[in-house]
Design goal:
By secondary structure, the chain is mainly alpha-helical. It contains 5 helices and no strands. The protein is globular and about 40 Å long.
Length: 122
């Protein structure tokens, strides 16, 4: 079973955790936000939807999501996103990855950019 990467936790300084005191879920318990073993299908979708409704009106939703992404929280609804939705956010798309890793003057795998080469038709 995967565990949260605690090496990425911000530390014990209160200002890192203060956002939690304003969370809409603070008094609700965790069962709404973390699925029990074996929960699937409609039951899981309904529980996730209920959790997301709480997150929808939460004043610290962005801080919560940022925390879950930074620590790679493997379970539950955090900041209005399920673990699957957070994985998709954290995983760069192929196009974005190609654009950020292509050498200067190239875009993806289409070869050199010849649009500005003198004497070459555009």
């Amino acid at each position: 079973m995967p565990e949260a990467d605690v090496t990425r936790l911000p530390g014990s300084a209160v200002h890192h955790w203060e956002w939690q005191t304003y969370a809409a879920c603070r008094e609700l318990g965790s069962s709404r936000f973390f699925h029990p073993a074996g929960e699937r299908g409609e039951e899981r979708e309904e529980r996730d939807a209920a959790a997301k409704r709480v997150c929808g009106g939460c004043p610290v939703r962005e801080a919560c999501l940022e925390h879950a992404l930074r620590t790679r929280e493997p379970f539950g609804v955090w900041g209005g996103k399920t673990e699957e939705e957070r994985k998709a956010l954290a995983r760069p798309s192929r196009a974005r990855r190609a654009a950020t890793t292509a050498p200067k003057g190239q875009s993806g795998s289409s070869g050199p950019d010849r649009s500005a080469t003198p004497g070459r038709p555009r």
